[in-house]
Design brief:
By secondary structure, the protein is of the alpha+beta class. Among the domains are: 1-31; 44-95. It is 45% helix and 26% strand. The protein has three helices and four strands. Strands 1-2-3-4 form a four-stranded antiparallel β-sheet, with no helix packed on it. The chain is elongated, with a radius of gyration of 28 Å.
Length: 121
């Protein structure tokens, strides 16, 4: 008699797990479980530029959308837009290539060396 109860429990468990798997497959087939990638293949319009922690409960976040930046204060109870429509820097609007980065690094190194030479003379 005890074996009969365990056997029915196992069949019920397998039936429930099978129904869950079937519903999951059906949901994915009809698009309910699809990943959200609306801008696949395009450049992103929205990005987080910088995050600063003010204290244990608040953060200051600089967001960029298209060519403007927005300064937002995030807190536990409310979020506050501090400044909106800040013009994004021109060099930040377009991605920098590796060749440009290495050239910029060489120029900054040369500028530091010339400053050090002026101090020594």
């Amino acid at each position: 008699m005890d074996f009969d109860i365990y056997l029915r429990f196992m069949f019920a468990l397998i039936l429930v797990l099978g129904l869950i798997a079937a519903l999951t497959c059906a949901a994915r087939r009809f698009g309910f479980g699809a990943p959200l990638t609306p801008n696949a293949g395009r450049t992103p319009r929205l990005s987080v530029i910088e995050v600063r922690t003010l204290d244990s409960r608040r953060k200051l976040v600089l967001l960029r959308r298209d060519a403007s930046e927005h300064l937002v204060l995030l807190g536990p109870n409310q979020d506050l837009l501090l400044e909106s429509g800040i013009a994004a820097p021109r060099e930040a609007a377009q991605p920098v290539s590796l060749a440009t980065e290495s050239t910029a690094a060489k120029l900054s190194t040369a500028a530091k060396l010339s400053t050090a030479e002026r101090r020594n003379s």
